[in-house]
Amino acid sequence: MTAMILFRRHLRVRNALVLVLLLGLSVTGVVRARLAYGYDQEVQKLNRFVQTTDGNTPAAKAFREGRDLIERENWPQAAEKFNSFVSDFPKDRDVDAALYWYAYALQKQGKKDQAAVPLLRLIKNFPSSSWRREADTMLVVLGRGEAVQQALDQNNCEIKILALQSLFEANEDRAISFVGDVLKSSSTDCPGLKSAAVSLLGSQGGPRAVPMLLEIARSQADMKLRLTAIRRLSEHGAAEDLVQLYDADRTKEVRAQILRAFSEMDSPRAEAKLIEVARSGDDLSVRQLAIRSLGGKNGSTSLDELIRLFDADKTPEIRTHILRALSERDDPKAHAKLLDVARNGETPELRIEAIRRLGDRGGASLEDLLQLYTSETNAGIKKSLIRAFSETNDPRALAKLYEIARGAADLELRVTAIRGLGERNDEQTVEQLVNMYDAEPNVQVKATLIRGFGDSNNKSAVRKLMAIARSDQSVDLRKMAVRQLGESKDPEALKFLEDLLR
What we know:
The chain has helices spanning 3-24, 27-35, 40-49, 58-71, 75-88, 95-108, 112-125, 132-141, 145-153, 157-170, 172-184, 191-204, 209-218, 223-235, 239-248, 252-263, 268-280, 284-295, 300-312, 316-327, 332-344, 348-361, 364-375, 379-390, 395-407, 411-422, 427-439, 443-455, 459-471, 475-486, 491-501. It is mainly α. Among the domains are: 1-170, Tetratricopeptide repeat domain (Serine Threonine Protein Phosphatase 5, Tetratricopeptide repeat, Alpha Horseshoe), CATH 1.25.40.10; 437-502, no CATH class. The longest helix is centred in the first third of the chain and has 22 residues, at 3-24. It starts with a helix and ends with a helix.
């Protein structure tokens, strides 16, 4: 099998993957990657698959040398090598491939006009070449006017989108006019083209794109197009236009997209609208989204408003979302409010939620939680603190869990701490729990440890279960250990059970 057969086979696979990406991912992101012609990784992967050919002809040797230069990204020498191949072996069956890689190496050096020459020769002399489609694509990427227009006229969606990007770079007026025609068209031949056109209009069309994007956002067009237009409008800073659209349009998806757009805008007007919706929006889910969006802002105005809203609004769902938003703020005032709610919240549910959010923050918040555990008298709150400790990898939290698990006066708190330790499932923690089992007189605590061993896939835990099943003084605990081993898929545990049956 020749090197070129493998080149072609893997290139077809790559083309299929690109098309899947184009249909499944953000069109603009894929187009940008493709336009950058960033095939370096693909080429390297491709060449790793290319095996040394069996042929020892001078042509085969020269092509392999060119391939190696491409793999090393030595573009000047690769271009020279493939150019020499074309000159020295004009009748070889792989001249079309050499022309393509010659052009590829030239365009990697930024020599767009020079790169177009071998591509046009490939297309003219080898119209049925398996490299023809790649040559067409590269000509579009190079911005060759005739190739761009031809691509716009054909039905290949991928090429058409690439051509539209090139057209924006070469002639913005023509590109905007083409987008207008695409959006008016009722054709369904290229489903992704309209979405790509709107996205490219927003990213490449400059200020002139704003009126068109507004028209799309306000229209009764396909919802995906409207949402794309709204996202692009936010990038143009069209806060006032989006505020007016929010007030005029009651479509839930549209309003939600506008709120998300506001969260990404550095605009006092956008922030003010988020505050207004959070405070008095006519739909609970929309208010919650506005609150979450405010959590991502950095201004003191929105932070103060979140705190005021928490104090004034008694709706549980709203308060929960505010606590979440506060936890996302790296601000001493947000931290202080969370800690105040954790200590003095009006309901256990609020206190538990604040504790959970403080636990997510770690650092200084953990120290506050450790102090709160010492002073707290409510068992339910203490359990929530233990759960917060178990969800962090901070050594201080781990030490506190060990302390509670070994010696807390309240049995339920001990059990909760042991469960939290059991979820960690690392070797050191399992060893500590094994040692705790051996020293523990309380049967309920031992039962909790056994369940923890059963939930672990650690070998030390499995072997401890086997030891308990074999010789523990309590028959009930031995039975429990056997049940846990029976639910295990560990081969050593299953063999142990088979031996027990003999």
